[in-house]
Design goal:
alpha/beta, eight-stranded parallel barrel, 13 helices, oxidoreductase, F420-G6PD/mer, two-stranded antiparallel sheet, EC 1.-.-.-
Length: about 325
């Protein structure tokens, strides 16, 4: 059984538009939605970066059924983990237990804004592991004081805390992070159809859901889709070692000058063909991911949501399409 999610790209759409898009996605039958949590877009063309937690509050009140999650929040610098825990608890209550907290170790683009510098990968992972312990402990009510190498708590307590703890879904780009998700989290999230991540997560005792983000660009023609995907998503081809380190949209502009629409189309399925999009989605299902977040690249969200409702969802769920 696959659970189908809709990606709210806060880098590509303003806050009011994100709310409208989610209302339409709920009507179309998506099971949940995941919002990015950034202070900057990846590239200038995307043009937006609203505060995800304010938008989430509006989303919780504007919808009734659809699940909500962050994909993902970084709790190592820009946010103290205690603040993330408080925000997650509040969203759990406002949404009627529809919220899941996606967490990751972050990237320089968003975290350097506090002026604390950007640590090396080893320190980032150590900070992240401590942050997960703090957030889990505050959400369960089992931790109020904490003294780690990087994070501290002093008599912290969440006075408004839902009876159902929001699950912590941990981002993983490699097997070690997947094992961390098994040890400290309640689920896994990734962006590539990699069997080694699922194997590492399950092998380390992880029994929770496995989320994956699948980027596509539906459009009336393949050429239009390729141009749109290139304009808005070429940054994703730089690779995580680069994405984690670049500090600004100008840096990403320089790093993506060589990337062509054809190169983007190798990673983002483009055009009107349902078969091609379904083939890309099925690669993640076959790998073992059971919660799929469909990310329509670019401004044409209504057209994509109708395509999902009429074609993709029936095919993925094994029921006849509409129309």
């Amino acid at each position: 059984m696959v659970t189908l999610g809709y990606k709210l790209m806060s880098e590509e759409h303003g806050p009011a538009e994100l709310v409208r898009n989610l209302q339409r996605a709920e009507q179309a039958g998506f099971d949940f939605a995941a919002i990015s949590d950034h202070v900057s877009p990846w590239i200038e063309e995307q043009g937006h970066a609203s505060f995800a937690w304010s938008v989430l509050g509006a989303l919780a009140q504007a919808t009734r059924r659809i699940g909500l999650m962050t994909a993902v929040t970084c709790p190592i610098m820009r946010y103290h983990p205690a603040i993330v825990a408080q925000a997650a608890a509040t969203l759990g209550l406002l949404s009627g237990d529809r919220f899941a907290l996606g967490l990751g170790a972050g990237e320089r683009l968003n975290e350097h804004v506090t002026g604390e510098g950007w640590p090396g990968v080893g320190e980032r992972h150590a900070r992240f592991a401590e942050a997960i312990d703090i957030i889990q402990g505050l959400l369960t009510g089992e931790v109020s004081n904490y003294r780690g190498t990087y994070h501290r708590l002093d008599h912290a307590r969440l006075f408004d805390r839902p009876q159902r703890k929001p699950p912590l879904i941990i981002a993983a780009g490699g097997p070690e992070a997947a094992r961390l998700a098994a040890r400290k989290g309640d689920g896994l999230i990734a962006t590539e159809p990699r069997a080694d991540l699922i194997e590492a997560y399950r092998g380390a005792g992880g029994s929770g859901p496995c989320y994956a983000e699948v980027s596509l660009c539906y459009a009336p023609s393949e050429e239009e889709a390729r141009e749109t995907a290139h304009r808005y998503a070429r940054w994703s081809l730089t690779g995580w070692p680069v994405m984690a380190e670049l500090p600004s949209v100008e840096s990403f502009a320089a790093a993506t000058k060589h990337i062509t629409p054809e190169m983007v189309a190798q990673q983002v399925t483009c055009g009107p063909s349902a078969e091609r999009h379904l083939e890309a989605i099925h690669r993640f299902r076959q790998t073992g991911f059971d919660h799929l977040i469909l990310n329509q690249v670019g401004p044409e969200q209504e057209r994509f949501i109708a395509f999902f409702e009429q074609t993709l969802a029936p095919a993925l769920r094994g029921s006849p399409g509409k129309g």
